[in-house]
Amino acid sequence: MSRRAAEWGFELFLDPTMTAVRREFSVERALRGTGFGLGGRVVDRLRENNDALERQLVAGEFDAYRERSLAQFRVLLDAVESDEEIAAFADELLAHDSYVEAIDETATPAQRAAVAEDVLARLDRLGTGLAPILDRPEDDFWAAAAGAYSQVAATTLVQEAFPFTEPLSTHRGVLTFEVEADPNELLDSALLPTLPSASIDYTDEAIHAMTRAERQVVADLTEEVRSRFDADER
Questions:
Q1: DSSP letter, residue 194
Q2: Which terminus of the chain has fewer Cβ atoms in its 10 Å neighbourhood, N or C?
Q3: What are residue 201's DSSP bridge partners?
Q4: Where are the domains of the chain?
Q5: What is the pLDDT of residues 220-232, one digit of tens each?
């Protein structure tokens, strides 16, 4: 079985997506409505130091998201290889899920269960979609894909199994992405007093950036599928 080809294919989607998310994400928009006071002076200074804020706060959040996604994907491959129902791996899969981690503490048990159900349904689609790759001997994803799929099936994988943002819009009301920020570490100014830390809620901006990034990467990979399968038919 070729786990490496499946991992490669997942990274072909994940890494460009995270790069695109970073490109789409606006620190300035994320700062709107933050808890920093002083008549907006702190926010204004933070906006002037977007690079520092992104480097110290946002970049770390996105890096953690990527690592959780990879860890979760490895568990998913274990599930596919086991031939068991995904429910047997549910606890471990959900333990690595960024959406489950982002469920607001005020969410009801029913709302938490709904998020978990949709997350597992998405992972089940991804696992089912990638199962033919695991039966191939090739380590290269595109070589394995050529032997495992028709062009239609490969396109379906890219457009329906890889995307991950649906739970964001479905459960927007119970998901909160936030990071604790200490303005004293981000701003170096004797003119500002010692300030308490505050939470930056970047949920709206994360959804905006992730949705746009995913749309672009899906379009790019769809074109890549067309190009590669057309070339194989020549």
A1: P
A2: C
A3: 178
A4: 1-230
A5: 999 999 999 987 6
Could you give the CA distance from residue 31 to residue 183 in angstroms, rounded to a whole number?
12
CA distance 169 to 129: 23
State both tokens at 187: 């701003």
- pLDDT one-digit tens code per residue, 156-201: 999 999 999 999 889 999 999 987 776 666 655 554 556 556 677 8
Q: Transcribe 103-115 into DSSP letters.
A: B-TT--HHHHHHH
What are the residue ranges of helices labelled H in the chain? 3-24, 27-31, 41-48, 50-53, 59-82, 90-95, 98-101, 109-134, 141-148, 151-156, 166-170, 183-186, 203-233
In contact, 71 and 10? CB cutoff 8 Å: no
Structure tokens at 6: 């499946």
